[in-house]
Amino acid sequence: MGARRSLGRQFGWLWAAYAVSAFGTWLAFDAFPIIAIVVLHAGSAEVSLLAAAGLAVGAMVAVPLGPWMEFRRKRPVMIAMDVVRFAALMTVPVLFLLDRLTFAQLVVVSVVVSAADIAFTAASGACLKALMPGDDLLVANGRFESTAWTATMVGPPIGGAAVGLFGPVMTVAANAVSFLLSAAGIRAIGGAEPRPARTGTPSRLRAGDLLEGWRYILTHPALRPLFFNTVLVGGLIMATAPLLAVLMLGDLGFAPWQYALAFALPCVGGLIGSRLSPRLVARFGRHRVMLTTGALRACWLPGLAFVRPGVAGLVLVMAVELGLICCMGVFNPVYATYRLERTPADRVARTLSAWSVSSKATIAALTALWGLLAGVTGPRIAVAIAGLLSLATPLLLPRHEQAPLPEQEPAASHS
Asked: Model's pTM, two decimal places?
Protein backbone atom coordinates (compact mmCIF):
# COMPACT_ATOMS: atom_id res chain seq x y z
CA MET A 1 0.00 0.00 0.00
CA GLY A 2 1.65 3.21 -1.16
CA ALA A 3 5.09 1.62 -1.09
CA ARG A 4 6.04 2.99 -4.51
CA ARG A 5 3.87 6.07 -4.91
CA SER A 6 5.49 9.47 -5.02
CA LEU A 7 5.12 11.66 -1.96
CA GLY A 8 6.21 14.79 -3.78
CA ARG A 9 9.40 16.71 -4.45
CA GLN A 10 9.58 18.28 -0.99
CA PHE A 11 9.46 14.93 0.77
CA GLY A 12 12.00 13.60 -1.72
CA TRP A 13 14.55 16.19 -0.64
CA LEU A 14 13.80 15.62 3.06
CA TRP A 15 14.24 11.87 2.56
CA ALA A 16 17.50 12.37 0.64
CA ALA A 17 18.84 14.61 3.41
CA TYR A 18 17.96 11.98 6.00
CA ALA A 19 19.51 9.18 3.95
CA VAL A 20 22.87 10.86 3.40
CA SER A 21 23.28 11.81 7.07
CA ALA A 22 22.17 8.32 8.22
CA PHE A 23 24.73 6.62 6.00
CA GLY A 24 27.42 9.04 7.16
CA THR A 25 26.60 8.37 10.81
CA TRP A 26 26.75 4.58 10.44
CA LEU A 27 29.88 4.82 8.31
CA ALA A 28 31.66 6.37 11.30
CA PHE A 29 29.72 4.43 13.95
CA ASP A 30 32.77 3.05 15.84
CA ALA A 31 35.17 5.84 14.89
CA PHE A 32 35.29 7.66 18.25
CA PRO A 33 36.05 4.55 20.37
CA ILE A 34 38.69 3.48 17.82
CA ILE A 35 40.30 6.94 17.86
CA ALA A 36 40.26 6.95 21.67
CA ILE A 37 41.91 3.52 21.84
CA VAL A 38 44.31 3.61 18.89
CA VAL A 39 45.26 7.29 18.67
CA LEU A 40 44.88 8.48 22.27
CA HIS A 41 45.63 5.14 24.00
CA ALA A 42 42.53 5.40 26.21
CA GLY A 43 41.56 2.58 28.55
CA SER A 44 38.20 0.82 28.90
CA ALA A 45 36.97 3.24 31.59
CA GLU A 46 37.68 6.25 29.37
CA VAL A 47 35.99 4.63 26.36
CA SER A 48 32.91 3.89 28.49
CA LEU A 49 32.95 7.48 29.74
CA LEU A 50 33.09 8.75 26.16
CA ALA A 51 30.00 6.75 25.20
CA ALA A 52 28.00 7.63 28.32
CA ALA A 53 28.89 11.33 28.34
CA GLY A 54 27.80 11.84 24.76
CA LEU A 55 24.35 10.48 25.54
CA ALA A 56 23.78 11.78 29.06
CA VAL A 57 25.34 15.24 28.87
CA GLY A 58 24.10 15.73 25.31
CA ALA A 59 20.58 14.97 26.50
CA MET A 60 20.84 17.55 29.29
CA VAL A 61 22.21 20.18 26.94
CA ALA A 62 19.30 19.52 24.55
CA VAL A 63 16.56 20.09 27.17
CA PRO A 64 16.00 23.81 26.35
CA LEU A 65 16.25 23.26 22.58
CA GLY A 66 12.73 21.84 22.22
CA PRO A 67 10.94 24.90 23.66
CA TRP A 68 13.38 27.20 21.85
CA MET A 69 12.60 25.76 18.42
CA GLU A 70 8.85 25.21 18.87
CA PHE A 71 7.77 28.57 17.45
CA ARG A 72 10.54 28.90 14.91
CA ARG A 73 10.55 27.66 11.34
CA LYS A 74 11.82 24.10 11.48
CA ARG A 75 13.90 23.90 8.29
CA PRO A 76 16.34 26.67 9.33
CA VAL A 77 16.68 24.89 12.69
CA MET A 78 17.47 21.60 10.90
CA ILE A 79 20.04 23.30 8.67
CA ALA A 80 21.62 24.97 11.72
CA MET A 81 21.89 21.62 13.55
CA ASP A 82 23.49 20.04 10.48
CA VAL A 83 26.03 22.86 10.30
CA VAL A 84 26.74 22.54 14.04
CA ARG A 85 27.37 18.80 13.65
CA PHE A 86 29.59 19.41 10.61
CA ALA A 87 31.66 22.03 12.42
CA ALA A 88 32.00 19.98 15.61
CA LEU A 89 33.04 16.79 13.81
CA MET A 90 35.52 18.57 11.53
CA THR A 91 37.48 19.71 14.58
CA VAL A 92 38.56 16.07 15.06
CA PRO A 93 40.53 15.62 11.78
CA VAL A 94 41.80 19.21 11.94
CA LEU A 95 43.21 18.83 15.47
CA PHE A 96 44.51 15.36 14.58
CA LEU A 97 46.50 16.80 11.68
CA LEU A 98 47.83 19.51 14.01
CA ASP A 99 48.72 16.83 16.59
CA ARG A 100 46.48 18.61 19.12
CA LEU A 101 43.67 16.07 19.47
CA THR A 102 42.79 15.17 23.08
CA PHE A 103 40.35 12.88 24.84
CA ALA A 104 38.52 15.91 26.28
CA GLN A 105 38.00 17.17 22.72
CA LEU A 106 36.34 13.88 21.75
CA VAL A 107 34.02 14.13 24.75
CA VAL A 108 33.03 17.71 23.90
CA VAL A 109 32.36 16.82 20.25
CA SER A 110 30.33 13.81 21.32
CA VAL A 111 28.18 15.96 23.61
CA VAL A 112 27.62 18.67 20.97
CA VAL A 113 26.70 16.15 18.27
CA SER A 114 24.33 14.29 20.61
CA ALA A 115 22.50 17.49 21.57
CA ALA A 116 22.26 18.56 17.92
CA ASP A 117 20.93 15.10 17.00
CA ILE A 118 18.06 15.52 19.46
CA ALA A 119 17.20 19.01 18.20
CA PHE A 120 17.37 17.91 14.56
CA THR A 121 15.14 14.87 15.19
CA ALA A 122 12.50 16.98 16.92
CA ALA A 123 12.52 19.64 14.19
CA SER A 124 12.39 17.03 11.41
CA GLY A 125 9.38 15.35 13.03
CA ALA A 126 7.52 18.66 13.07
CA CYS A 127 8.60 19.32 9.47
CA LEU A 128 7.38 15.90 8.36
CA LYS A 129 4.00 16.39 10.07
CA ALA A 130 3.55 19.68 8.21
CA LEU A 131 4.54 18.20 4.83
CA MET A 132 2.68 14.87 4.93
CA PRO A 133 -1.11 14.86 5.24
CA GLY A 134 -3.27 11.86 6.20
CA ASP A 135 -2.13 8.35 5.33
CA ASP A 136 1.00 9.66 3.60
CA LEU A 137 2.54 10.13 7.05
CA LEU A 138 2.72 6.37 7.66
CA VAL A 139 4.20 5.74 4.20
CA ALA A 140 6.81 8.46 4.81
CA ASN A 141 7.76 7.06 8.21
CA GLY A 142 8.06 3.62 6.61
CA ARG A 143 10.54 4.98 4.08
CA PHE A 144 12.61 6.61 6.79
CA GLU A 145 12.58 3.33 8.71
CA SER A 146 13.74 1.28 5.71
CA THR A 147 16.51 3.82 5.04
CA ALA A 148 17.64 3.65 8.67
CA TRP A 149 17.95 -0.14 8.58
CA THR A 150 19.72 -0.07 5.21
CA ALA A 151 22.27 2.36 6.64
CA THR A 152 22.63 0.21 9.75
CA MET A 153 23.26 -2.86 7.61
CA VAL A 154 25.77 -1.52 5.07
CA GLY A 155 27.32 1.46 6.88
CA PRO A 156 29.47 -0.32 9.53
CA PRO A 157 31.04 -2.86 7.12
CA ILE A 158 31.96 -0.10 4.65
CA GLY A 159 33.11 2.06 7.55
CA GLY A 160 35.26 -0.79 8.86
CA ALA A 161 36.90 -1.15 5.47
CA ALA A 162 37.41 2.62 5.29
CA VAL A 163 39.02 2.63 8.75
CA GLY A 164 41.41 -0.08 7.57
CA LEU A 165 42.33 1.87 4.43
CA PHE A 166 42.26 5.49 5.58
CA GLY A 167 42.06 5.42 9.38
CA PRO A 168 39.18 6.34 11.75
CA VAL A 169 39.77 10.09 11.50
CA MET A 170 38.87 10.07 7.81
CA THR A 171 35.52 8.38 8.51
CA VAL A 172 34.75 11.17 10.98
CA ALA A 173 35.47 13.69 8.21
CA ALA A 174 33.17 11.76 5.85
CA ASN A 175 30.43 11.83 8.48
CA ALA A 176 30.90 15.58 8.89
CA VAL A 177 30.53 16.11 5.13
CA SER A 178 27.33 14.03 5.17
CA PHE A 179 25.74 16.60 7.48
CA LEU A 180 26.73 19.40 5.12
CA LEU A 181 25.06 17.50 2.27
CA SER A 182 22.00 16.97 4.48
CA ALA A 183 21.79 20.73 5.06
CA ALA A 184 21.93 21.30 1.30
CA GLY A 185 19.09 18.78 0.81
CA ILE A 186 16.90 20.51 3.38
CA ARG A 187 17.65 23.86 1.77
CA ALA A 188 16.50 22.40 -1.57
CA ILE A 189 13.05 21.50 -0.18
CA GLY A 190 11.92 24.97 -1.17
CA GLY A 191 8.46 26.42 -0.83
CA ALA A 192 7.26 28.74 1.88
CA GLU A 193 7.40 27.50 5.44
CA PRO A 194 5.05 29.54 7.64
CA ARG A 195 6.31 30.72 11.00
CA PRO A 196 4.36 28.87 13.72
CA ALA A 197 1.99 31.19 15.53
CA ARG A 198 2.16 31.63 19.29
CA THR A 199 -1.22 30.85 20.80
CA GLY A 200 -1.29 32.50 24.20
CA THR A 201 2.37 31.66 24.81
CA PRO A 202 4.78 34.34 26.06
CA SER A 203 7.48 35.32 23.58
CA ARG A 204 10.28 34.69 26.07
CA LEU A 205 11.35 31.22 27.13
CA ARG A 206 10.28 30.51 30.71
CA ALA A 207 11.59 27.85 33.09
CA GLY A 208 8.21 26.08 32.96
CA ASP A 209 8.49 25.74 29.17
CA LEU A 210 11.41 23.35 29.60
CA LEU A 211 9.03 20.73 30.99
CA GLU A 212 6.14 21.33 28.60
CA GLY A 213 7.04 18.35 26.40
CA TRP A 214 7.08 15.95 29.34
CA ARG A 215 3.92 17.55 30.75
CA TYR A 216 2.04 16.87 27.53
CA ILE A 217 3.33 13.30 27.24
CA LEU A 218 2.60 12.36 30.85
CA THR A 219 -0.94 13.79 30.84
CA HIS A 220 -1.91 12.21 27.51
CA PRO A 221 -3.73 8.89 28.06
CA ALA A 222 -2.33 7.24 24.92
CA LEU A 223 1.14 8.78 24.68
CA ARG A 224 2.05 8.21 28.33
CA PRO A 225 2.13 4.38 28.20
CA LEU A 226 3.71 4.43 24.73
CA PHE A 227 6.43 6.76 26.02
CA PHE A 228 7.37 4.48 28.93
CA ASN A 229 7.23 1.41 26.67
CA THR A 230 9.51 2.73 23.92
CA VAL A 231 12.00 4.37 26.27
CA LEU A 232 12.33 1.23 28.41
CA VAL A 233 12.52 -1.21 25.49
CA GLY A 234 15.15 0.88 23.74
CA GLY A 235 17.15 1.23 26.94
CA LEU A 236 17.12 -2.52 27.66
CA ILE A 237 18.12 -3.41 24.11
CA MET A 238 20.99 -0.94 24.02
CA ALA A 239 22.16 -1.85 27.53
CA THR A 240 22.82 -5.42 26.36
CA ALA A 241 24.93 -4.37 23.33
CA PRO A 242 28.29 -3.93 25.13
CA LEU A 243 27.62 -7.04 27.21
CA LEU A 244 27.06 -9.12 24.09
CA ALA A 245 30.31 -7.77 22.65
CA VAL A 246 32.17 -8.88 25.77
CA LEU A 247 30.41 -12.26 25.80
CA MET A 248 30.87 -13.04 22.10
CA LEU A 249 34.30 -11.53 21.47
CA GLY A 250 35.76 -12.48 24.83
CA ASP A 251 34.21 -15.48 26.55
CA LEU A 252 32.97 -17.30 23.44
CA GLY A 253 35.88 -16.47 21.15
CA PHE A 254 34.04 -15.19 18.08
CA ALA A 255 36.14 -13.31 15.56
CA PRO A 256 35.34 -9.61 15.08
CA TRP A 257 34.05 -10.26 11.55
CA GLN A 258 31.67 -12.93 12.87
CA TYR A 259 30.39 -10.55 15.53
CA ALA A 260 29.84 -7.82 12.94
CA LEU A 261 28.10 -10.26 10.59
CA ALA A 262 25.78 -11.47 13.35
CA PHE A 263 24.36 -7.98 13.80
CA ALA A 264 24.61 -6.62 10.24
CA LEU A 265 22.78 -9.32 8.27
CA PRO A 266 19.62 -9.35 10.45
CA CYS A 267 19.09 -5.67 9.60
CA VAL A 268 17.39 -6.93 6.44
CA GLY A 269 14.50 -7.64 8.82
CA GLY A 270 14.08 -3.88 9.23
CA LEU A 271 13.65 -3.53 5.46
CA ILE A 272 11.10 -6.33 5.41
CA GLY A 273 9.19 -4.94 8.38
CA SER A 274 9.09 -1.37 7.12
CA ARG A 275 7.78 -2.57 3.74
CA LEU A 276 5.11 -4.67 5.41
CA SER A 277 4.02 -1.97 7.83
CA PRO A 278 1.56 -0.03 5.58
CA ARG A 279 0.07 -3.28 4.23
CA LEU A 280 -0.49 -4.70 7.70
CA VAL A 281 -2.08 -1.46 8.87
CA ALA A 282 -4.41 -1.44 5.86
CA ARG A 283 -5.52 -4.98 6.63
CA PHE A 284 -5.63 -5.13 10.43
CA GLY A 285 -5.79 -1.52 11.59
CA ARG A 286 -3.12 0.73 13.06
CA HIS A 287 -3.77 0.12 16.74
CA ARG A 288 -3.87 -3.67 16.46
CA VAL A 289 -0.63 -3.75 14.46
CA MET A 290 1.09 -1.48 16.97
CA LEU A 291 -0.03 -3.59 19.94
CA THR A 292 0.88 -6.90 18.30
CA THR A 293 4.31 -5.96 16.98
CA GLY A 294 5.04 -3.92 20.11
CA ALA A 295 4.46 -7.05 22.17
CA LEU A 296 6.34 -9.35 19.79
CA ARG A 297 9.45 -7.17 19.72
CA ALA A 298 9.76 -7.67 23.50
CA CYS A 299 9.90 -11.47 23.22
CA TRP A 300 13.25 -11.86 21.45
CA LEU A 301 15.78 -10.36 23.86
CA PRO A 302 15.87 -13.31 26.32
CA GLY A 303 17.09 -15.57 23.50
CA LEU A 304 20.44 -13.74 23.36
CA ALA A 305 21.32 -15.11 26.81
CA PHE A 306 21.57 -18.62 25.28
CA VAL A 307 24.27 -17.85 22.72
CA ARG A 308 26.88 -20.60 22.40
CA PRO A 309 30.28 -20.75 20.71
CA GLY A 310 30.58 -21.86 17.11
CA VAL A 311 28.21 -21.82 14.16
CA ALA A 312 25.16 -22.72 16.25
CA GLY A 313 25.65 -19.68 18.46
CA LEU A 314 26.15 -17.42 15.47
CA VAL A 315 22.95 -18.69 13.85
CA LEU A 316 21.04 -18.23 17.13
CA VAL A 317 22.11 -14.59 17.43
CA MET A 318 21.19 -13.92 13.79
CA ALA A 319 17.76 -15.55 14.19
CA VAL A 320 16.97 -13.63 17.37
CA GLU A 321 18.16 -10.32 15.91
CA LEU A 322 16.23 -10.95 12.68
CA GLY A 323 12.99 -11.53 14.56
CA LEU A 324 13.55 -8.53 16.82
CA ILE A 325 14.47 -6.16 14.01
CA CYS A 326 11.62 -7.32 11.76
CA CYS A 327 9.11 -6.56 14.53
CA MET A 328 10.78 -3.19 15.11
CA GLY A 329 10.63 -2.45 11.38
CA VAL A 330 6.86 -2.81 11.48
CA PHE A 331 6.34 -1.16 14.88
CA ASN A 332 8.55 1.92 14.57
CA PRO A 333 6.83 3.72 11.65
CA VAL A 334 3.40 2.89 13.10
CA TYR A 335 4.28 4.25 16.53
CA ALA A 336 6.02 7.32 15.04
CA THR A 337 2.91 8.10 13.00
CA TYR A 338 0.62 7.43 15.99
CA ARG A 339 2.69 9.84 18.10
CA LEU A 340 2.69 12.63 15.50
CA GLU A 341 -1.05 12.32 14.87
CA ARG A 342 -1.79 12.71 18.57
CA THR A 343 0.47 15.69 19.14
CA PRO A 344 -0.76 19.20 18.28
CA ALA A 345 1.32 21.15 15.78
CA ASP A 346 2.29 23.71 18.44
CA ARG A 347 3.74 21.00 20.73
CA VAL A 348 5.49 18.66 18.28
CA ALA A 349 9.04 19.98 18.74
CA ARG A 350 8.81 20.04 22.54
CA THR A 351 7.20 16.60 22.69
CA LEU A 352 9.69 14.92 20.35
CA SER A 353 12.62 16.66 22.05
CA ALA A 354 11.46 15.47 25.49
CA TRP A 355 10.99 11.97 24.10
CA SER A 356 14.51 11.88 22.61
CA VAL A 357 16.12 13.36 25.72
CA SER A 358 14.43 10.73 27.88
CA SER A 359 15.41 7.94 25.52
CA LYS A 360 19.09 8.89 25.38
CA ALA A 361 19.29 9.49 29.13
CA THR A 362 17.65 6.12 29.81
CA ILE A 363 20.05 4.33 27.46
CA ALA A 364 23.01 5.95 29.19
CA ALA A 365 21.72 5.09 32.67
CA LEU A 366 20.77 1.49 31.86
CA THR A 367 24.01 0.88 29.98
CA ALA A 368 26.00 2.00 33.03
CA LEU A 369 23.75 0.03 35.40
CA TRP A 370 23.95 -3.15 33.34
CA GLY A 371 27.71 -2.77 33.13
CA LEU A 372 27.84 -2.82 36.94
CA LEU A 373 25.40 -5.73 37.03
CA ALA A 374 27.52 -7.71 34.58
CA GLY A 375 30.54 -7.10 36.80
CA VAL A 376 28.72 -8.92 39.61
CA THR A 377 26.78 -11.61 37.73
CA GLY A 378 28.66 -11.97 34.44
CA PRO A 379 27.47 -10.74 31.03
CA ARG A 380 25.23 -13.74 30.26
CA ILE A 381 23.16 -13.39 33.44
CA ALA A 382 22.91 -9.62 32.94
CA VAL A 383 21.61 -10.13 29.39
CA ALA A 384 19.09 -12.69 30.70
CA ILE A 385 17.81 -10.22 33.33
CA ALA A 386 17.34 -7.53 30.67
CA GLY A 387 15.47 -10.06 28.53
CA LEU A 388 13.14 -11.05 31.37
CA LEU A 389 12.37 -7.40 32.13
CA SER A 390 11.61 -6.79 28.46
CA LEU A 391 8.84 -9.42 28.63
CA ALA A 392 6.88 -7.11 30.93
CA THR A 393 7.09 -4.04 28.66
CA PRO A 394 4.00 -4.89 26.52
CA LEU A 395 1.92 -4.05 29.61
CA LEU A 396 2.90 -0.42 29.00
CA LEU A 397 1.45 -0.23 25.48
CA PRO A 398 -1.75 1.84 25.07
CA ARG A 399 -4.66 -0.58 25.36
CA HIS A 400 -7.38 1.49 23.75
CA GLU A 401 -7.50 3.25 20.42
CA GLN A 402 -7.71 7.03 20.57
CA ALA A 403 -8.74 9.14 17.61
CA PRO A 404 -5.97 11.33 16.16
CA LEU A 405 -6.18 15.07 16.46
CA PRO A 406 -8.21 16.74 13.68
CA GLU A 407 -6.10 18.15 10.90
CA GLN A 408 -5.69 21.92 11.09
CA GLU A 409 -4.51 24.44 8.60
CA PRO A 410 -1.00 25.60 9.50
CA ALA A 411 -1.13 28.94 11.26
CA ALA A 412 1.38 31.59 10.26
CA SER A 413 2.65 34.78 11.79
CA HIS A 414 5.01 37.36 10.41
CA SER A 415 8.37 38.30 11.80
From this structure: 0.84
